[in-house]
Amino acid sequence: MQWRRPHGDLPSAIVNWFSVRNADGTISQPRQHTHYPTDHGGLTVLSLTAHPGAWADPDTGLLVVGHGIFNAPQKVANYYANDPRWWKYPGNFHGRGKEWQRRGHMELIAPDGKLLLEASVGVRINGQMTRGFPQHAFRLLFDDPVDVPLFPDGDGPGTMALILRPAGNDQVKAMLRDAYQHGLCRELPFETSRSLTCVTYLNGAYWGVHHLRQRMDEHEIARRYGIKAKKVALLEDRARPVNADTSGSLAFMRLVVGTERWDGRSPSWIDTLHQRMDVDGILTYMASQMILGNMDWPRQNVK
User: What's the pTM value of the predicted model, to 2 decimals?
Assistant: First the structure.
């Protein structure tokens, strides 16, 4: 892994757990409270806690190489064998699925100290090759839909999953480009992911600046359009289905093949295409990617 020693002393937080004894003698559910004595320059704070073994244990820790190299799926092992770059090195952080989900608890605290959100979450490592980067992105899965605003424009109620990411490929460079570009494109006719910049603490340890992002999955699309998630088919890269259902991919490929056969000189061709595709949206999306100079597209990072 690529690692650099931090500059200077890092702040730390104190995470307290407490319960309240009610007048009738019953004990309330445990609550978490994070106290941090440091001013963070007006940034929101996200405190994420879990059992210590969830982070650094060689067998169960999400953040370490650990024993993952001995248990790596053949696909992951082949990535490194065929192209031995440091971010492809097998490790626990390449683990996927429920087996590599840990229970955690998060607090989202406003710059003025007000508690914005407290919730139990499932925690996984998120991403593709950035899993091998110095700082990993977390996928935060809620047991119930979030019922409070999360982002500056008030969006957030109904959210089932968020991504806490240190800017992906950009984490050792500008560390803001993806979130900034999504903000620039927010009013355009294609889907973007809102962002909240926050200082992260992991079990009270300072974990740096991260971006809290909306996870663009079928549940998020369904939330935005008021439909059922099972009605949403997500495809990525070369029309590969994100989940196991291949019906959406087949329908999309039929549209592609049919378009190649239609007579482009006919007005009916344009009408049919507009009926089946958001033409303005796809053209604006493609133009935006080109103008912003996305060098890691369109062969990948398409959804």
Answer: 0.90
The answer to whether residues 295 and 151 belong to one domain is no
> Which of 70, 82, 61 is CA-nearest to residue 136?
61
Contact 185, 177 (CB under 8 A): no
210-246, pLDDT tens digit by residue? 999 999 999 999 999 999 999 999 999 888 888 877 8
What DSSP string describes 210-245? EEEEE--SHHHHHHHHTS-GGG---EETTTEESSS-
CA pair distance 49, 104, nearest whole angstrom: 6
Listed in order, strand segments (DSSP E) in 114-257 are 115-126, 137-142, 161-165, 195-202, 205-214, 235-236, 240-241
Please report where in the chains the tokens 């200082």 appear, as a residue: 199
> Do 270 and 199 fall within a single domain?
no
For residue 87, what is the DSSP state?
G
Do 172 and 23 belong to one domain?
A: yes
